[in-house]
Amino acid sequence: SGSRDEALRDKRARILSRGLPKQKPIEGVKQVVVLASGKGGVGKSTTAVNTALALAANDSTKEVGLLDADIYGPSIPKMMNLKGNPGLTPKNLMRPLKNYGIACMSMGFLIEETAPVVWRGLMVMSAVEKLLRQVDWGQLDYLVIDMPPGTGDVQLSVSQNIPIAGAVIISTPQDVALLDARKGAEMFRKVHVPVLGLVQNMSVFQCPKCKHETHIFGADGVRDLAKTLGLDILGDIPLHVNIRETCDSGQPVVISQPESDA
């Protein structure tokens, strides 16, 4: 009975795998790391931007790129202080815009800043495919992908189309955010993407006057989830006005205040 069940499982897996696209590396890119969250508003894009800058700052010999895969709400152009349209190569590939040594590509470079993207799923998938395949990244050691929130079409398409070295899940310690963060981690496991660990964002607020610390979104929720899932905690980021202000002004904290605690 056990061997029959195992044979059935293998058969199902083979049938399902037939419908999946073949993974094809992005030309010139050695390692792809995706930063994701189940829920929006947990600071994922801020963390993605600072992660890309930190990878470059830690080793100046490494070339780093940043892809904004959030079609509906692209925020990388503002955070990386980039404007304008990408140029084209003779092979009709888009050239990424560059700032702080990071090559960036985003839907935000292709539409007006205030224009909403009112598209159905198929159009979104086509845009994601173009951002993945029709960009001349040159030679990159790391491509950091800022994923949209949720576990939908974009996440599946990216995970199934390109080999991913690992995923990082961003969450606040709040119970509502943790529910979705868990779903995000489980989704990557289902599509066989290694989950590198979790980042606990907005973990504590320190009053700038009296230095009293308040856990606005709860304490250690992400740490508890990491234990449950058997994953590492990669970072514990405070809720700090400097982190928000520097990203809003297009001068992320890693580049503008590298010696600060944040």
TrEMBL record:
Entry's Gene Ontology BP terms: iron-sulfur cluster assembly; mitochondrial respiratory chain complex I assembly
Compartment list: Mitochondrion
GO molecular function: 4 iron, 4 sulfur cluster binding; ATP binding; ATP-dependent FeS chaperone activity; metal ion binding
Pfam families (UniProt xref): ParA (PF10609)
Cofactor: [4Fe-4S] cluster
Signal sequence range: none
Record-level GO cellular component terms: mitochondrial matrix
Sorted UniProt keywords: 4Fe-4S, ATP-binding, Iron, Iron-sulfur, Metal-binding, Mitochondrion, Nucleotide-binding, Transit peptide
SUPFAM superfamilies with a match to the protein in the record: P-loop containing nucleoside triphosphate hydrolases
Protein family according to the UniProt entry: Belongs to the Mrp/NBP35 ATP-binding proteins family.
Function description: Iron-sulfur cluster transfer protein involved in the assembly of the mitochondrial membrane respiratory chain NADH dehydrogenase (Complex I). May deliver one or more Fe-S clusters to complex I subunits.
HAMAP family: Mrp_NBP35
Name listed for the protein in its UniProt record: Iron-sulfur cluster transfer protein NUBPL
Organism: Burhinus bistriatus
Higher taxonomy: Eukaryota, Metazoa, Chordata, Craniata, Vertebrata
The gene coding this protein: Nubpl
